[in-house]
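Feature request, filed as a ticket because there's no other form

It would be nice if the structure record came with a short human-readable summary line next to the tokens. Right now we just get the raw output. Example of a typical job, pasted below so the devs can see what we mean:
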Amino acid sequence: MVRLTLDLVAKNINQRNRKEESITQYLKKITHLNFSNRNIDIIDDLSVCKNLSVLYLYDNNISQINNLSFATNLTHLYLQNNSISCMENLRSLRKLEKLYLGGNLIAVVECLEGLDELRELHIESQRLPLGEKLLFDPRTLQSLANSLSILNISNNNIDEIRELEVLENLTQLIAVDNQLLHVKELELLLKKLSKLWKMNLNGNPVCLKPKYRDRLIVMSLSLGKNFYS
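Raw output as currently delivered:
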């Protein structure tokens, strides 16, 4: 078991960057931490790092999102390819702009209320039980309606996305390799998402429908050449 502790962070500090500062002084100022692919299981107390803005923890063994409530200046959080099953303990990250959670065990997009600055959510390729699909908590979708601009939900066995219509400021939707089938549903969605200028639906059954691409482009004045299928 590998814990991400202050001691571990201190051991990885480049001494040339510290100048004459103590470890504590340096940790208080640090803005970026990269502990990707380090077999980390647990995030320990890093609350000294109050100015942390970017945290890379992808390709580890983390199962729970813990001990990040101190990171109120965090803008980018990379947690893809871990073993996280629940989107929890993120609501204190009020400045978070980009959240990467692809390749985990998450079944429901939830618990993001209050993240009013979140612009990008990447939650592709969840490792779900056979036959299950990624679901969306309506409260979370509503809370992201004004902020979210980019959403990646690829490869999650999703067969309908009409509920995403509340994301009125969405500009990019990546939903590759899902089970979307109905052109009409997508037409209704595009009526609502007037700011959407890029959409990728490659690998969905709907792509086999005759003239479906033409129908959707006609429905959306903003898509045009940025519609991939």
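Something like this underneath would help us a lot:
Residues 198 and 225 are 8 Å apart (CA to CA).
Residues 183-192 form the longest helix (10 residues).
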